[in-house]
Amino acid sequence: MKLNLLTPERKAVYDTEITEVTVPAYSGEMTILPGHSPLITTLGTGILKYKIKGSDRTHKAMISWGYCEVVPESVNVLAEYMQTPEEVVVADSQALMAAAEKKLGTEILADHDYEVAMQDIAKARASMDLVKN
Questions:
Q1: Residue numbers of the domain that contains 112
Q2: Domain total for the chain?
Q3: What is the CATH number of the domain that holds 54?
Q4: Which of 35, 40, 79, 128 could cross-link 63 (Cys pair, CB 3.0–4.6 Å)?
Q5: pLDDT confidence of 126, banded at 50, 70, 90?
Q6: Sequence-ordered strand ranges (E) for 26-94
Q7: Claim to verify: residue 72 and residue 34 sit in the same structural domain
């Protein structure tokens, strides 16, 4: 099966033969193997993991929000945002988390601003997890 991982900025993975992929579905982590039933699901923020055919190495990327479509021959992931381990700057993630936590702790936020702060915390945590493991 093939994996396509696309964001508004780039084609991160395109037509890559894989043996499995694990996505951070909104309702929890989901592993997809060849022959999986077709589906479409929403994605939360977390670590996407996949193995390229012929390799035992697990490749990882942090993704935030999007959709995953599983069809007979491919898995298509459309993510709002993604980072590879090489792109993560831990100090930036820590600063993002600290700013969001400060906002949550000191301000009365509108619903949208609250959601943005929570998403920033989730992104920062996932980015740091990506380079930790």
A1: 89-132
A2: 2
A3: 2.60.15.10
A4: 79
A5: very high
A6: 28-32, 39-52, 58-71, 74-83
A7: yes
